[in-house]
Design brief:
By secondary structure, the chain is mainly α. It is 47% helix and 10% strand. InterPro entries: 6-hairpin_glycosidase_sf (IPR008928), 6hp_glycosidase-like_sf (IPR012341), GH125 (IPR008313).
C-alpha cells in the first residue's frame, strides 16, 4: 500500500541516521507489511482497519496506526487514497454513535452485545473515550494540510464534527446532562462503570468527562487530563478547517469557545504542586479535589503532550511532569535488567509498552536518547522482530500480544523522526 520507491528512500534515511541495518530492516518490513495486514479497501471507497488481532475498527487505533504513513504520503497519491478512506470510514462511524469506540465492518451485531448500554449492530464496543473522537479530527486536519486534496473534507466531516461538539458539550456536566450509561458484568472492574453505569461522581471543571482511558480501562476520576489536552488541540484544528475551508463561522466559534473552556479547566484543575518535581500535570481529576498522579502507556498520555501538540518539549511544566512519569513516582513505571519505561494497569505489573518507549523517544530533544530507545526496541522483541503490546522488563521473551500493529507503527514513526522526518 506504500510506493516501494518512497519506502526505499525512507529506509535509506533511517539507515543513515541510525547506522544500524537491523533497525532499518525492521522499519522497512513493518512499513511494507503493517498497513496491508490490517487495511481493507471497501467498495464504497472507504478503508476498514482492523485493530491488530481483534476483528473490529477502533477510532483511536486506526488513526494512530497511520502516523508513519502520514509522514510519507505527500509523494504517494495511492497511499493518500487509502488514508483518506480510513478517515471517511471513521466519520461515518462517528455519525452512527459518537459514544462508541470500536465498530464492525458491517452491521452484523458482532462484539460485546451483552453490555448494558445503547448498542447498535454496527458497534463492537461502546466504551466512551474522549480521545477516540480526537483522532478523526486530527487525521482530517493532517491529511488536508499534507495533501491539499479537495476530497479530504466533505459533508461527512461536518456531520461528525457537530456530533463531537455536541457530545463534548453535554459531557461538561456529566452528572446533570449525560445520557451515557455503561455496565459490563463478569469482567474486571476496569471494564465497567460504577453507580449503575454512570461512573464515579464528578463535579464540573470546564473539562469534558470521559468514561474510559485510551487503554479502554475505566477512568478513576472522570476527567482524563491528557485526553482533554488532545481535545483542546483538535478543537483548534476544527476551528481552522471551519474558517479556512468550510467558511462556517458558527462551527468555528463553537470549537473556539469549547476549547477556551477546556483550557481553563486544565489550568484550574489539571495541575498539582509536587514536593519533589514542582508544578506537574495530573493524569485524572474529579473536580472535587481528587487528583491522580500517574501515566499510562497508551496515547494520548501525559508523556505524549509534545506529540499531540499541547506542549512544547521544553515547556517547564511538561519537563517536570516528564521527570515524575519516568520515575518510581509513577506507579506504572517499571525498571529491570533489560528495560525501563512506562507500562499500564491494562497489562501485568513489570510489563513495559513499546508504544510508551517510542513516545519517550518522539518527545525527547536528545538524539542520543532516540538512538538508545530505537536500539532498546530492536533488542526486546523476544526474537520475533515485531513490537508487542508489552514485555517484561527482566525477560523480553515474556510479552502480551505477539503482534501489535499500533506498536509497530510507533516504532516506525520514531525511526522516521530520528531521520528528521516528522509530522
Amino acid at each position: 500500500m506504500i510506493d516501494p520507491d518512497v519506502l526505499a528512500r525512507a529506509t535509506e534515511e533511517v539507515h543513515r541516521a541510525t547506522g544500524d541495518p537491523v533497525i532499518a530492516s525492521m522499519f522497512q518490513q513493518s512499513m511494507a507489511e503493517n498497513l496491508p495486514a490490517v487495511a481493507e479497501r471497501l467498495p464504497d471507497g472507504t478503508t476498514f482497519v482492523l485493530t491488530g488481532d481483534i476483528p473490529a475498527m477502533w477510532l483511536r487505533d486506526s488513526a494512530a496506526q497511520l502516523r508513519p504513513y502520514l509522514v510519507l504520503c505527500a509523494d504517494d497519491p495511492a497511499l493518500q487514497d487509502v488514508l483518506i478512506g480510513v478517515l471517511h470510514r471513521q466519520l461515518e462511524y462517528v455519525a452512527i454513535d459518537p459514544y462508541a469506540n470500536a465498530f464492525n465492518r458491517e452491521p452484523n451485531g458482532a462484539g460485546h452485545t451483552s453490555d448494558l448500554t445503547e448498542m447498535s449492530p454496527w458497534v463492537w464496543e461502546r466504551k466512551y473515550e474522549i480521545d477516540s473522537l480526537c483522532y478523526p479530527i486530527e487525521l482530517a486536519y493532517r491529511l488536508w494540510r499534507i495533501t491539499g486534496r479537495a476530497d479530504v473534507i466533505d459533508e461527512r466531516f461536518t456531520t461528525a464534527a457537530n456530533a463531537i461538539l455536541e457530545l463534548w458539550t453535554v459531557e461538561l456536566d456529566h452528572e446533570a446532562r449525560s445520557p451515557y450509561r455503561f455496565e459490563r458484568h463478569g469482567e474486571p472492574v476496569t471494564d465497567t462503570l460504577v453507580r449503575e453505569g454512570r461512573g464515579r461522581w464528578t463535579k464540573p471543571t470546564g473539562m469534558s468527562w470521559s468514561a474510559f482511558r485510551p487503554s479502554d480501562d475505566a477512568t478513576q476520576h472522570g476527567y482524563n487530563v491528557p485526553g482533554n489536552m488532545f481535545a483542546s488541540v483538535v478543537l483548534g484544528y476544527l476551528e481552522a478547517i471551519a474558517t479556512e475551508l468550510l467558511g462556517d463561522p458558527a462551527l468555528a466559534a463553537r470549537a473556539k469557545d469549547l476549547r477556551a473552556g477546556i483550557d481553563d479547566g486544565i489550568a484550574q484543575h489539571g495541575t498539582v504542586d509536587h514536593p519533589t518535581f514542582g508544578r506537574v500535570y495530573a493524569y485524572e481529576v474529579d473536580g472535587a479535589g481528587e487528583r491522580l498522579l500517574m501515566d499510562d502507556a497508551n496515547m494520548p498520555s501525559l508523556l505524549s503532550l509534545p506529540l499531540t501538540g499541547y506542549a512544547a518539549p521544553d515547556d517547564p511544566t511538561y519537563l517536570a511532569t516528564r521527570k515524575l512519569l519516568l520515575s518510581p513516582e509513577n506507579p506504572f513505571y517499571y525498571s529491570g535488567t533489560h528495560a525501563a519505561g512506562i507500562g499500564s494497569p491494562h497489562t501485568p505489573p513489570g510489563y513495559v509498552w513499546p508504544i510508551a518507549l517510542a513516545v519517550q523517544g518522539l518527545t525527547s530533544t536528545s538524539a542520543e536518547e532516540r538512538q538508545h530507545l530505537l536500539e532498546l526496541l530492536r533488542d526486546t522483541t523476544g526474537g520475533t522482530g515485531q513490537m508487542h503490546e508489552g514485555f517484561h522488563v527482566d525477560d523480553p521473551t515474556k510479552y502480551t500480544r505477539e503482534w501489535f500493529s499500533w506498536a509497530n507503527a510507533m516504532f516506525c514513526e520514531l525511526a522516521l523522526a530520528h531521520a528528521g522526518r516528522r509530522l
